Amino acid sequence: MSSLVIHDVDEEIVGALGNLAEQNGTSPEIEHRRILEAALKPAEPQKKCFIEFLDSMPNIRKDEDFERIN
């Protein structure tokens, strides 16, 4: 893994990062890593269940338009 050093960060941002870490019981470094990952990692595509997929299809025909084979 690589390291990342950031210079000239506003004290308000540093304080907010420390407060967030304290609230979550972690370190500022862990919170910084989480923020970067959330902002930069591509989101996993949301999978739909079969019914949601069918519901998303446009309704362009009527049942009577199709021949029923018994």
From TrEMBL:
One of its GO terms (biological process) is regulation of DNA-templated transcription. InterPro entries: Arc_rbn_hlx_hlx, FitA-like_RHH, Ribbon_hlx_hlx. Signal peptide: none annotated. Residues 3-40 form the Antitoxin FitA-like ribbon-helix-helix domain. Pfam families: FitA-like_RHH. One of its GO terms (molecular function) is DNA binding. Keywords: DNA-binding. This is DNA-binding protein. It comes from Spartinivicinus marinus.
